[in-house]
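Quick one:
INPUT:
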């Protein structure tokens, strides 16, 4: 993949808001290299060790297909590479069999299926599958797509952490509403009973006075219980706020890594242009231009 294209891809992926748009962009990159290539994103549940969904990009959008395929059905070397997350491996001569297992229907038979794992917090969250026809000569499509796959993995992690942060906030808000609602119902019922007892008699006797005292004790206990729940809720809110802060820092680090990749891609492009323009006829001039490009990075 050309450095200019890689820099553009890094910019677009850093602005992608969901997996559908990022996956469509990656499919377009693969189609530009080889029109007959196919790409799909598989989501995994690491706790149940299942492949749960397949996302298939097309010209009309991204199709979603539920799956229930055990990860153990994949070969052991493939599973190890997926859990590692950074390596691209292929099924070789068994590609057609595993395409049937994963529900991928190629335009022509006899190709190669390659996969690249996507991990979150050290656990497998999904993987990208790329099908390409076999070639006698020239580099494989997946080799040219490796930088784009790495950028997609960064975008996938960023979007997953963004979703997790909002899910944590939503869960906290729901917990808060439930606790407040339960407290209000209990307090309202106890006050209603207390008011009813007080209205039964203006000058209560011993039994009525004991009932009122009992209800007042219950109301006091309920108030104390509500106070304890509020304290626990405050502790939960503090923990969630701390977790959200960590997620935001991770997002900032990912953004910095994306900017670094973009800067490196720009330097590679300048070096490649100098070599193409001056490399064969004027090697000394090409070397001078390369030094000029690298000078700001080491000054």
């Amino acid at each position: 993949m050309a450095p200019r294209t890689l820099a553009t891809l890094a910019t677009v992926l850093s602005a992608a808001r969901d997996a559908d748009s990022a996956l469509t962009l990656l499919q377009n990159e693969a189609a530009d290299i080889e029109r007959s290539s196919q790409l799909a994103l598989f989501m995994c549940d690491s706790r149940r060790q299942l492949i749960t969904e397949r996302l298939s990009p097309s010209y009309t959008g991204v199709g979603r297909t539920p799956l229930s395929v055990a990860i153990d059905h994949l070969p052991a070397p493939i599973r190890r590479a997926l859990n590692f997350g950074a390596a691209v491996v292929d099924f070789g001569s068994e590609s057609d069999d595993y395409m049937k297992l994963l529900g991928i229907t190629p335009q022509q038979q006899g190709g190669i299926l390659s996969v690249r794992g996507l991990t979150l917090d050290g656990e497998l969250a999904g993987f990208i599958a790329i099908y390409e026809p076999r070639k006698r000569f020239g580099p494989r499509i997946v080799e040219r797509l490796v930088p784009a796959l790495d950028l997609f993995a960064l975008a996938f992690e960023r979007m997953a952490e963004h979703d997790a942060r909002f899910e944590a906030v939503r869960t906290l808000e729901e917990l808060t509403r439930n606790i407040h609602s339960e407290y209000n119902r209990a307090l309202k019922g106890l006050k209603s009973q207390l008011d009813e007892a007080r209205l039964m008699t203006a000058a209560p006797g011993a039994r009525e006075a004991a009932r009122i005292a009992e209800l007042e004790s219950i109301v006091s206990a309920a108030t104390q219980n509500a106070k304890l729940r509020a304290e626990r809720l405050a502790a939960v809110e503090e923990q969630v706020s701390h977790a959200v802060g960590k997620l935001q820092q991770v997002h900032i680090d990912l953004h910095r890594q994306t900017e670094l990749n973009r800067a490196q891609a720009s330097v590679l492009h300048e070096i490649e242009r100098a070599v193409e323009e001056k490399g064969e006829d004027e090697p000394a001039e090409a070397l001078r231009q390369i030094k000029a490009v690298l000078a700001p990075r080491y000054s």
